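Hi P.,

Sorry for the delay on this. The queue was packed all week, but I finally got your sequence through. Input first:
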Amino acid sequence: LRTQGDLRAAETHLLQALSWNPSSIETRYYLALLYLDQQNKDAAKTELTTVLKLDPYHAEAKEKLTLVSK
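Then the structure:
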């Protein structure tokens, strides 16, 4: 849905998935990407930070967090 431009529906689905599995690294990472698409840097930082707490070696999350933090 995110790639189709339906950001609200994508966010709803991702948040629902997180309610079922709050430790899902993949879901949190895609939620961060969605927040970046929405220009919501604070929410993206929060999700990327959580991804890195769950998986300190997540290279993509490290890269995105570095870019967002500039």
